C-alpha cells in the first residue's frame, strides 16, 4: 500500500518536521512492514510561463512545429520549439527549463533543433507524470489555475509530494486505505485521528434520502453457506461534465498511490477506494436496463469486461446483472457494456460488500487480480459503504458539476460482530508480560473496539466492523502487544525440561545428513511437487496425492521419490556451468494407498486440544509420509591433476554413500542386482536390510539422462530412511580394539552366475565365526577357465583373535568353515 503523505496529513496530525523514514518507522512499530519510499521523479526548474507569440513552421518531413516565445517571469522571453498545436497566445503552460529532469529520467537542456535553439520544453500531462494524455500541452486554464509567471509548477501541481509504501498482511485488510493507515499512525504516535467516514466529515450528503432504484440480492449458490453480498448501496448523480479534467492534486495522489489517471469520474471512484478502503464501481446510468441483481452466473453465460476480454463465466462467479444479463464480475471488474465513457453524464454509484471467499475464487479463476478484489479478499468494512458512496457523490458534484439525485438504494445487512470475553490475566499469561488493565483497555479502544466490564474482572470486547480478524482472546492479545509495544516482550529462551531433547529418529536423521555432508555431498531442499510425466517416469503407475489447489497446474502431484527434485537441481546447476556435482536431500515423500480416500473433514480449532481419538483420526486421514534420503552424483569424483587423470563418478559412488549411511545409523546393508525402468540395466543395485528392500542405487538410463540434458553417467541413490531407522538396532555395537596382529587370507569361490555375491559373502561370514574380523569382495571374474553359467568371486578375509595371536592353521580352519557353508547353500567350489 502506497501512502501519499499529503493525503495522510488530512486524517491524522503528522508533525510538520516528520520525514518519510520517521513515518515509515512509526508504521513498522505497529506491525506493518516497510517496503519503499516513492519520491517525485522530476526536479526543477519547472515553472509557469505565458505564451507571448508563436509561428507555425512546416518541415520537410511533413511535420509542423511552433517556434514560441514564452514569458517565464524573467527579464527576457525564452524561445522554445514545440510540436503540439493545442495551445494559443495568452495560455499559461508548464515550462521545463534547462537543468530540469522529467520522469524517465529525461534531462532538459538548451539544444538546437529545426533551425532554432530551444531553451527548454513546454510539458504535457504525460511528460509531468500526471496522466497518459499526450495529445497536447497541459493548459493551466483547463485546470482552473491562473498563477503568476515563474511560479514553481512542481509545488503548484502537487508534484513535490512523496509516498511511503508498506506491506499489508492478509489479516489486516483495513490497512489498504488511507483511513486505515492514518489510524495505525495515530495508534503508533498518539497523533489525533480524524475519521473521514464520519458524518461530520462528509456533511449532509451522507444522510440525504436515496431510494427508488431496484436492487435484488438473489444468491442461490452461496459459497460455504455465506451469501455473496451483505451490503449494496447505490446513489445517482446527474448532469456531470465529462470534459472536465481531473484536478492535479487528485491525479498526483493517485499516481503516488500507484494508479494512473483515466478520467475524472473514474479517478474519483479510485480516489475514494484508496481513501476509505471501499471499492466503488460507477455505471453509465443511461446504459443500464432496469435495476440491478446480484446473482451467480448462468451456465454458458459470457461477459465482456473492461479490459476488452470476453470471459466465460463459472456457475460460482458472483455477477452484477441488469435486465440485459451480466454486466460485471462482482468485486473484481466491471463490464464494458455499462462503463463510464467520455459521453457519460448520469452516473450510478455502487458501493457493496461481497463475500471474501467468493471474490478470491473468481479473481483466481479468471486470472484477474484488481485493486478491488485485493481489498474484498481481505475483508472490507461493511459499514463504510454508505459513507463511500456519499463521498463519491460529493466529489462528482464538486468537481464534475453534477447534481445529486434522490434515486438510489440502501441494502445494509452486515453480520454483527460477536462480543469476545477477555478474561482477567489472559493477556499477560499469553505474552509473558504484565500489562495494566488501563493499557489493555486503552489499546482495544484505540483500534476501534467497544470495551465493557464483564464478570470476575473480565472485559467484554466488541471488535470494530473493519476488523473481522479479531475473533478470540489470542487475537485481542496480539493487538494489545502490538500497540503497547513489542519491545515490552522479553527475549527469553525456554528451558527444556529434564529428559527431553531430540528423539532417536531425529538424531539418526541428523547423523545421516551429517555423514554425507562430511564426505563432500551438498545438501539441498527441493519442492515436493511433480508433474504427472515425472511421477510416471520414477514411480510408474503407483498412486500419487493430487493437490486440490496446486500453486502450479503443471506440477499438481506430491512426490513419491526424492530423485525428481535432485535431478531438477542438477539441471539448474549444470546450466550455470557447474559440472562436478554431489547433491543429497533428506525429506518426506507421500505414499498413498491405491483406492483409499484421504481427508478428515473440518479441522479442529487451533486453540483447543482435539483429544486422542481425534488425533488418531487425523493421522489416519493423511497418507504415509516416510523420510527418505536421496543422493545424486555427476561429473568427476576427483579433478584432473598433474600426473593423475580425473576420476569420473559411477555406481561405486552411490554404493559408497549407502555404506556411509548404514554406518551413520549403526547397521549394514546388503546389495543385490536389481532393476528399475529409469535405471541402467546391469548397473542397478537393490539395497537390503536383512530380508527387506530399503532402497535402490544405480546409474540413470543413458537415454533418460540424455532426455533430461544430463551427462551420460548419473549415479543416484534413494533409501527409505524411516524403514532403515526402524529396523536398525537401537544400540550401536562397539568392540574393543585388539592388540594382537591380524591374519589375512583370500578365497576364490566358483558359484552359479545368478547367485548374488552378497549372499555368498554372508554365508562365509556366518561359517567363519567370531575369528573373522572383516571380509569384502575384491573380484568378480567371468571368462576363460570358468564354466559357462558360473562366475568366480574372490573375497579378502581378515582374521584376528581377541586374546591371542592366531596361527595360520586357525585362520585357515575358520576360512574353510566359511567355505563349507557357502558350498552347502550355493554349491560353491574352491577355484584352483
UniProtKB/TrEMBL annotation:
Which EC number(s) does the record attach to this protein? 6.1.1.20
Its predominant location is cytoplasm
The B5 domain, residue ranges: 415-491
Which superkingdom does the taxonomy of this entry point to? Bacteria
User: What range(s) does the FDX-ACB domain occupy?
Assistant: 738-831
An example GO BP is:
phenylalanyl-tRNA aminoacylation
| Catalytic activity reported | tRNA(Phe) + L-phenylalanine + ATP = L-phenylalanyl-tRNA(Phe) + AMP + diphosphate + H(+)
Alphabetized, the UniProt keywords read: Aminoacyl-tRNA synthetase, ATP-binding, Cytoplasm, Ligase, Magnesium, Metal-binding, Nucleotide-binding, Protein biosynthesis, RNA-binding, tRNA-binding
Subcellular location(s): the record lists: Cytoplasm
Q: Locate the TRNA-binding domain: which residues?
A: 40-154
Alphabetized HAMAP family for the sequence = Phe_tRNA_synth_beta1
Q: Which family does it belong to?
A: Belongs to the phenylalanyl-tRNA synthetase beta subunit family. Type 1 subfamily.
Q: What is this protein called?
A: Phenylalanine--tRNA ligase beta subunit
Q: Which organism is it from?
A: Homoserinimonas hongtaonis
* Lineage of origin: Bacteria, Bacillati, Actinomycetota, Actinomycetes, Micrococcales
